[in-house]
Design a protein that fits this description.
Length: about 775
């Protein structure tokens, strides 16, 4: 009897001990000390696969079907599964579930490039607050977004997910995105860190980049986002950078990200399983995603045989526990599965219109409202809301341009119903031929129905204006090409455009082109033909209504280009160092002799990306960085630059000098004093969007710039340096449209020493 009582007391004490070690913010050290090696290794590996023969009762989570992945639970410490979901334009989960009559559709918001075209940080934050509500209410803890790699080339297959060719615009947009999502008590994972600027052989390609280009272009946007918004997580990319996989690079993930920038969250891998798990742990990559038992075993074996120090494991476990404590899953949040989709759809319509860029307008827009519109182009009827792959969203519907125009009271294809019927039949046949758009990693087939000249001539008397939609799509796993039907128009598209313009202009009527695209297309050879060109981008599920709102003048377009539109693809500074002819090389291992732009890519253009190159070298573009028209006009007056303790504050008065209300994105470009480091002719150092200004109304726009933002990176000194001298400060409507100027005098040079890391290795054989 006495032995029985003693055993019962021991069991009770053991249970109390376990209860006392349930994870809280105050007992992380105790939990780490109490965890077994298997539990620690388990916490560092995602839960995509169950653990065979394990003492830990954890498995893959069916909590949110269709989510990209999850972390693993450790039940005896009260550590729950946390859920990770794609994607940048909205939550990506399964919209229907077996045995469940409910639906779980998510809102497809405008893609990243579209949102960056707003140049509006407040709008970005409003949109992502709504997006974050869907993350929370669908039971997700972290959204794997935003994508924020630099638009090094217009042909990167995932540019639609990303923001800009400029690191400051990209970083500021990413910071606003992060703040919006995380205001809901859920997290983001900014990605892909870093130099994932092509999809071709993205798992193995070695991006070879100078330290200066890394610091000023490819790291700078991540630095801004981390310092201004403290994302919960960062996602390391698949590729190598200067000879090392980014997920296994301690200089990148610890020295720069944590020690220099002060990042305090977790780093997770992109979705794969590289053999170097142990190197990744040592580098500071806390979570292996999506997770495999083999990775858990690698960690355990390495600790046991002494090739991996427990110190590295415990450091990463600590960060994982700190992450778990922040999640709704840990708080046992009772998510509703009922976010406010109706309100979010209305926001998509508003945001989509705010992001549209008016590239050309010879007086035809806005439309009067009583026109009979002939609607050409498959995109008018089968509109593209967003790109493919993990950047896609399972939405309930897509509003096309025909729907949008009719909803705004226009007559569309009156007396020519057969045109609508033909396009819809063609769209259905195309979808059937491609398996409803193709596989996860394939680019959706871009094809256009041929419209004979006789059809255009026949329908001309029945319409007042023609609207032609040209569409493009791309996505994860493959880059775009410089061929017809991608960067360039197809013969069918060009014939339609030429035929419509010839016929309508001969009759004194107008033609409008709408570009429903995710990235840059060639415009220089044909933009003189139509009377207006409207860059709609991929503006989300209400995109057709957004386009119609701009066409009819319900919304005055205020979007501006977040990248340059070159005359030709081969004008881009990275053209000869990009795989513009190579498709579908995802996961391809390099041959015995490494293949340039597939197994390694030389960033020979250095810091001269986009407008930095065009402006410095005087290369003509079709449309410059920051460009965008309005239905009204603006003046810039009273430019003032006042020095502060660590930089300057620039102000300018913007006045609406036209006849309708509108918004203006004011861009601040700075030219550095001569001497010292070689520098671009001008660089974006700040921007601000006005409120909606009534005709005659003015607003004083204020933009603060610190000296660190002015600095360039000196590789010889491993330091950021802002030279002494006079800086020219330009207030502009685009990089080529300077409206007012002032000066800033920096009396003494400034410098910020950093670690001499991330050096490029010897170039591979050419």
């Amino acid at each position: 009897m006495k032995k029985t009582l003693l055993f019962a007391a021991a069991m009770t004490a053991s249970l109390v001990s376990v209860a006392q070690t349930r994870l809280t913010k105050d007992n992380i050290d105790q939990v780490i000390a109490s965890m077994t090696l298997e539990e620690k290794a388990t916490l560092l590996v995602g839960g995509s696969q169950p653990l065979p023969d394990s003492s830990i009762p954890t498995a893959t989570s069916a909590k949110v079907p269709g989510a990209a992945g999850n972390t693993r639970a450790i039940p005896r410490f009260g550590i729950p599964v946390t859920v990770l979901s794609d994607g940048p334009a909205g939550v990506r989960i399964q919209p229907t579930r077996q045995g469940d009559s409910n639906t779980y559709y998510c809102t497809a918001f405008p893609v990243g490039t579209s949102m960056a075209s707003s140049w509006d940080l407040d709008l970005m934050e409003r949109v992502t607050v709504a997006m974050g509500q869907e993350v929370l209410e669908y039971g997700v803890d972290v959204l794997l977004a935003p994508g924020m790699n630099i638009h090094r080339s217009p042909l990167c297959g995932r540019n639609f997910e990303y923001f800009s060719e400029d690191p400051l615009l990209s970083g500021k947009m990413a910071a606003a995105y992060t703040k919006g999502i995380q205001s809901n008590g859920v997290g983001v994972s900014i990605k892909h860190f870093m130099a994932n600027n092509q999809e071709t052989n993205r798992n193995e390609d070695d991006a070879q980049i100078s330290q200066r280009a890394l610091r000023e272009i490819y790291l700078k946007n991540f630095e801004i986002a981390v310092k201004e918004a403290q994302p919960w997580t960062v996602m390391s990319s698949y590729n190598k950078m200067n000879g090392k996989y980014t997920q296994q690079n301690r200089e990148l993930l610890t020295t720069v990200l944590r020690d220099e920038w002060g990042f305090n969250g977790i780093v997770m891998t992109d979705w794969g399983n590289k053999a170097g798990t142990i190197i990744a742990v040592e580098a500071g990559n806390d979570l292996m995603c999506p997770g495999s038992p083999s990775e858990i075993q690698r960690i355990m074996d390495a600790v046991k045989n002494g090739t991996l120090s427990m110190e590295y494991v415990d450091t990463n476990v600590r960060r994982m526990l700190e992450y778990v404590l922040k999640t709704p899953a840990y708080a046992n949040y009772k998510y509703s599965n009922k976010p406010d989709l109706k309100a979010h759809a209305a926001l998509v319509r508003e945001a989509g219109a705010e992001c549209i860029v008016l590239l050309k307008n010879d007086g035809v827009l806005p439309l009067k409202g009583d026109e009979n519109i002939a609607l050409y182009g498959l995109g008018s009827y089968d509109f593209i809301a967003g790109g493919t792959g993990s950047g896609d969203v399972n939405k309930e519907y897509i509003r096309n341009i025909e729907d949008g125009l009719k909803g705004n009271g226009f007559k569309v294809n009156a007396n020519i119903a057969d045109l609508y019927t033909k396009y819809n039949s063609y769209a259905k046949a195309l979808q059937a031929a491609t398996g409803n758009g193709g596989s996860w990693f394939s680019r959706a087939l871009v094809s256009e129905m041929e419209v004979p000249e006789s059809v255009v001539a026949r329908e001309l008397p029945n319409s007042d204006i023609a609207v032609i939609t040209i569409r493009r799509n791309s996505g994860e796993g493959a880059d775009r090409t410089s061929a017809q039907g991608d960067f360039n128009l197809t013969a069918v598209e060009r014939n339609l455009l030429e035929c419509a313009c010839d016929s309508y202009h001969a009759a004194g009527k107008k033609v409008v082109v709408v570009l429903n695209v995710g990235g840059v297309v060639e415009t220089a050879s044909w933009k003189n033909l139509p009377d207006a060109v409207v860059l709609a981008w991929q503006p989300g599920m209400e995109g057709g209504a957004s386009v119609a709102d701009v066409l009819c003048g319900k919304v005055n377009p205020s979007g501006k280009l977040p990248m340059s539109f070159p005359v030709s693809f081969f004008d881009t500074p990275s053209a000869v160092n990009f795989p513009y002819k190579v498709e579908n090389n995802n996961n391809r291992r390099g041959p015995a002799v490494p293949r340039k732009n597939v197994d390694y890519t030389e960033y020979q253009e250095g810091i001269y990306v986009g407008y930095r190159y065009y402006e410095t070298e005087g290369v003509e573009v079709s449309y410059p960085f920051g460009y965008g028209l309005s239905y009204t006009t603006f003046s810039y007056t009273k430019p003032v630059v006042k020095a502060t303790a660590d930089g300057f504050v620039a102000t300018v008065t913007v006045t609406n000098t036209g006849k309708v209300a509108g918004k203006e994105a004011v861009q601040l470009y700075v030219s550095a004093p001569a001497g010292g480091l070689d520098k671009p002719a001008t660089e974006l150092k700040g921007f601000a969007k006005t409120k909606l200004l009534a005709p005659g109304e003015s607003q004083v726009v204020t933009i603060a710039v610190d000296n660190y933002t002015l600095a360039s990176f000196n590789e010889a000194n491993s330091a950021w340096e802002a030279a002494a001298g006079t800086y020219k400060v330009n207030f502009a409507a685009s990089v080529k449209d300077v409206r007012a100027s002032a000066e800033y005098k920096l009396k003494a040079a400034k410098n910020w020493k950093v670690n001499n890391v991330l050096k490029p290795e010897v170039a591979l054989a050419k």
